[in-house]
Amino acid sequence: MPEGEVQGIWDLRAQPHQYLGGIDFAGRSVLEIGPASGYLSFWMEQAGARVTCLEPPMSHLWDVVPFEGFDIADWREKFLVEIEGVRNSFWYAHSALGSQVRMIETDPYAIPPEAGQFDVGVLTAVLLHCRNPFDMLQSLSRRVSRTIVVTEEYNPALGPAAACMFQPHRGVQQVDTWWQFTPQFFVSALGLLGFTQARVALHTQGQPAAGRDVSMFTVVCERPEPA
Questions:
Q1: Residues 20-33 pLDDT 10s
Q2: pLDDT tens per residue across span 130-157
Q3: What is the pLDDT of residue 226?
Q4: Can you tell me whether residue 222 is helix, strand or coil?
Q5: pTM for the whole structure
Q6: Residue 43 domain-assigned (yes or no)
Q7: In terms of C-beta distances under 8 Å and separation of at least 24 residues, what long-range contacts does 137-141 make, across chains too?
Q8: Is residue 108 part of a domain?
Q9: In terms of residue numbers, what domain contains 157?
């Protein structure tokens, strides 16, 4: 950006292609749920994709873990300020880059047909924040004809099964994180939805603010070509 570098929570610049499953975006239409500041959105556009991003309405702001006694209304009010800043950063970068990326605001659990049909669906570091991750996969699958890409944090202790681990507990009131997943969870879930050709890649991504690298996985699932 003209004003220089701004450090965020993640730094994906070293290997965005790997983070997105190594697929070829040239000439393809993409629906990305939860673009945040838009780094991946604009990268996919520069790689030749026609990108549409989806954010939930500001009145919802994702799913909050309903801890007993927790003041959700107060949390939402404070979180609203943070999210407004993130969305402003998206539009600032959009303008600075002269981007043609499209943004729609709708319920990601019920993406309407009016949003369009797409070649590729992208969900990166989103489903851990979702109360009903399978419902969101199903919603996205209805709008995608060929490929779905899912990236999440990798926890090898969960083993090889199709599993997700419930994260909230009374000891830590972390209200925006619901799950950890195994790669096989998405291979199995997306297979049920018709995306039966799957591959999995493991990689690490940097969190400079925390001074650490995070183990991640990316699952790419595709519908078979028509016979």
A1: 999 999 999 999 99
A2: 999 999 999 999 999 999 999 999 999 9
A3: 80
A4: strand
A5: 0.94
A6: yes
A7: 137/186, 137/189, 137/190, 137/193, 138/193, 139/108, 139/109, 139/110, 139/111, 140/31, 140/33, 140/108, 140/111, 141/190, 141/193, 141/194, 141/195
A8: yes
A9: 16-222
What does the alpha-carbon distance between residue 14 and residue 203 come to, in Å, rounded to a whole number? 11
**DSSP string across 65-127:** P--TT--HHHHHHHHHHHHHHHHHHHHHHHHHHT---EEEE--GGG--GGG--EEEEEEES-G
Residue 11 lies in a domain: no
**Which pLDDT value is given to residue 77?**
84
Strand locations in the chain, DSSP E?
Answer: 29-33, 50-55, 102-105, 118-124, 144-153, 164-166, 179-181, 197-207, 212-222
Helix (H, G, I), strand (E, B) or coil at 154: coil
In a domain, 5, yes or no: no
Count of residues for the chain? Answer: 227
